What does this fold into?
Amino acid sequence: MNRLGTETAFEVLARARALEAQGRSVVHLEIGEPDFDTPANIVAAGQKALADGFTHYGPSPGLPALREAIAADFTRRRGVTVWADQVVVYPGGKPVMFFMLLALLDSGDEAIYPNPGFPIYESMIKFSGATPVALPLREENDFRLDVDELKAAITPRTKLVIINSPQNPTGAVLTPQDIRAVAELCAERKLWLLSDEIYARILYEGQHDTPLRYGDRSRIVVLDGFSKTYAMTGWRLGYGIMSPEFAVPMARLQTNATSCTAAMTQMAGLEALTGDQSSVDRMVAEFKRRRDVIVDGLNELPGVSCKRPQGAFYVFPNIRGTGLQSKELESRLLDEAGVASLSGTSFGAHGNGYLRFSYANSVDKIRDALTRFGAFLDKLPARVR
Ligand SMILES: Cc1ncc(COP(=O)(O)O)c(C=O)c1O
It folds into this structure.
């Protein structure tokens, strides 16, 4: 259990809530979930499913109708043909990585993961007994991975590579050329590839692409889900796309762990995919507006500079010019200015020198946070800055 990590977002949220309980005001820019409610048509489908008796166990890989709908949606949006027997439905996107890494990794194996990156990758690689190998994402490369660096990180022990685009915590988007190069490299070296595409639809510029179009499909798993796209974090609904052969053990792990995903949740997911998509478009347009407000605002602050990310709902400003370490700034921003953010180091050692702000909050709140951040920096002694 000592090898198991966590997500510090939940710890910062708890500290922020404790401050609020003392009467302090806090602007929440720490948690990675849309602030929008689940669209009404999806909620209604969930309610109807309850009334219609979708309250029983179902098949471990997911309800056939939903697996069909996911395969059709994936085929249409990604331009790669996928069939229902390649889809396994889970309670969220996270179980896809949990089960995949548990299924494939053993002690002595190495797995390459993006750093800074979603903290559960490193945690789960360690938990499986394998060795995590950090692939640094650098600001000077717009936080995209460097394919030559990836090549150099591969050893005879490497079993698996993880990529994530659009990315948490930087919002970076890999180009189709990047995706193709990674997919071909993994195919050539016979490596498994986990492509975390949970933010695929939250894209403002550039183009989303998937390694399934280029690589060895027998060793690629795509993780996607409903949490971010349809503001359904609390419903717990995600899926993996994989080879029909690998879907068998991946569903069997689910049989052992949770039996199946909640039936009424899956029916809500069916409506999400097949119903009106305009709420997704509205949400993405609003996120884009907020992105521009927060990026422009951060770039006006002394000691802070921020790239304009192309996707997800995070910004990852460089805060080295403030003279403070990331962790100290995270903590003082919360205590002294009432702005909840996450230290870049919450996403791995290569996140040092950065903060992550989630802009899943209103433009007014974002402006308030920027004013508070500015006032905090103005009060810092000159020698710190
Ligand atoms: C990169 C990434 N992958 C996966 C997940 C997990 O999503 P879910 O809530 O559907 O399990 C998240 C959630 O924050 C994420 O940021």
